[in-house]
Amino acid sequence: MATTTAPAREARTGPPSILLKTVMAVTGLVGIAYLLIHMYGNLMILVGPEAFDEYAHHIRTFGEPMLPEKGLLWIIRVALLASLVLHVWAAATMWHRANAARSQRYVMTRRGYGNFYAKAMRWGGLAILTFIIFHLLHFTTQTVTIGEAHASPAARVLDTFSHWWGVLIYLAAMIFLGLHLLHGFWGAAMTMGLNSSLKRAEQIRFASILVTTIIVVGFMIPPFAILFGLLD
Ligand code: HEM
């Protein structure tokens, strides 16, 4: 019985896997940088609704008159969308490749531990993609509302999280995001070859737990503070 781990013939067409993994690592890190900034911005609501709206306004007018109104915002939006599209494309290509390899030849190494993480990353990634679409329809376009529609971004946030089910939806999304980041950060470091020693591997594991905790806890502080009436 053949036990080779070589990819199937059709799996070898298209970009090399290391390129796809590098694209995933770089675009994933762009996403993490954005999440840290977004989370920091959200924490402004603890200072007060005015501080939050001031921050939202500042992002729209930053760089004026050198940039047009919302100039920076559009630069960020385009960069983020490009990162997201590349990240999903690389993931989908690798997913397809893994399926093609499995249907060609049964490879023992595809069973067990590694395969669990691969599946969790793919299905969790799809859940996060669904959340991002929902999130834009909710806070940016207000096509979907939890509570009422508001002109002020702070009022939208305060209304949403005074509903327990609003908090629950965002909590569920943050749990998916946390699991994805935990393994994704680790995977990105592996791709970049940073695990040169056992000590290094431990440091990477620690860094991935730290970054994930900061993002998840930081994002969930405002919703819980609002739900428990701490901001009144
Ligand atoms: C508890 C968690 C979160 C809260 C309370 C929150 C809140 C918000 C709010 C209020 C806006 C609209 C800002 C404005 O109108 O000025 C926004 C926009 C946005 N959020 Fe979040 N967010 C959360 C998590 C996330 C996560 C996890 C992601 C990405 C995976 C994300 C991605 C975005 C994006 C892409 C925009 C659109 C920015 C734009 O182009 O205007 N958010 N968020």
From TrEMBL:
Write out the transmembrane intervals: 18-37, 72-95, 116-137, 164-186, 206-231
Q: Which InterPro entries match?
A: Cytochrome_b-558, SQR/QFR_C/D
| Coiled-coil ranges per UniProt | none
Give the residue range of the signal peptide.
Answer: none
Q: Which UniProt keywords apply?
A: Membrane, Transmembrane, Transmembrane helix
NCBIfam families from the entry?
A: sdhC_b558_fam
Quote the protein name from its UniProt record: Succinate dehydrogenase cytochrome b subunit
- The organism is Ornithinimicrobium kibberense
